[in-house]
Every structure is written in structure tokens, then in C-alpha cells.
Amino acid sequence: MLSGTDEKQDWQLDWEKAQEAITESERFDGIALLCSNVPSERLTAGEVMAKYKEQVNVEQSIDFIKSPVQVRPMWLHSPKRLAGLLLLIMVAFLVAALLEHQVRRMELAPLPG
């Protein structure tokens, strides 16, 4: 609660914890609701969560293909040239993915020395 007056400029802020609200909120910490069409016999709840967390990797890959490269057939007057450009883009994407995989593997390994 804020108390004080403008004349004296003696503002004071007092507060207290709303323990009931904190306890109620703590009950839901770490809980996420995921809806899936996969039967529970096929995947457990933990496996569904792991698959959900892997989804960001796929989305980043699609973003990589769309954003930095931006295929625009301005000077590609034939389907053969467009196919060639897309092939080069896919090769570049695969090389980038392999490099990222190697870097991630190196981060998990202990550094020498």
C-alpha cells in the first residue's frame, strides 16, 4: 500500500506477500499442456514433450531456407537454372547443418588442455 502526502513528500510503500496466491501459482510451475493426436500407447507424455522441444530445430531449418537465401527467380529464365539454384541452396543448407552438428558435438566434449 502506498501512503503519504504531496505536501510532506513522505511517501511510503508497504507490501506483504499474498501467500495463498503464491501457493496456488506454485502448483502449476513446470506444467505444460500439450495436445497430441498420437496415442498414449505409442508415445509417453515425456516423449511427446521431447518431440515438442525438437520442433524448434525444424522451424529454424525452414527459417534458414526461407530467410537468408531468399530464392527469387529474377534472372532465372529457365526451369533448369532455377532447379540448379535450388540444388545449390540445399547443398549449402546441408553443409551448414553438418557444421552446426559438429559444433554442438564439440561443445559437449571437454576442451583439451
What does this structure look like?
The protein has 113 residues and is mainly alpha-helical. Helix content is 53%, strand content 4%. It contains 3 helices and 2 strands; from the N terminus they run ββααα. It has helices at 19-26, 45-66, 79-108, and strands at 2-3, 12-13. It has a two-stranded antiparallel sheet with strand order 1-2. Strand 1 and strand 2 form a beta hairpin. The radius of gyration is 27 Å and the shape is elongated. The termini are far apart. 0% of the residues are buried.
Brief summary:
The protein is mainly alpha-helical and 113 residues long. 53% of the residues lie in helices and 4% in strands.
For this entry, give a set of tags.
113 residues; two-stranded antiparallel sheet; 3 helices; 4% strand
Secondary-structure map with pairings?
Layout: E1 2-3, E2 12-13, H1 19-26, H2 45-66, H3 79-108
Strand order of the largest sheet: 1-2
Task: Give the end-to-end Cα distance, rounded to a whole number of Å.
Answer: 57 Å
The shape, in one word, is elongated
State the order of secondary-structure elements, H for helix, E for strand: EEHHH
Percent strand: under 5%
Biggest β-sheet: count, sense, barrel?
Answer: 2 strands, antiparallel
Q: What does the average pLDDT come to? A: 80
Number of separate helices: 3
Q: What structural class do you assign from the helix and strand content?
A: mainly alpha
Low-confidence stretches: none
The total strand number stands at 2
Portion of residues within helices = 40-55%
Rg over C-alpha atoms, rounded to the nearest angstrom = 27 Å
Which oligomeric form is depicted? single chain
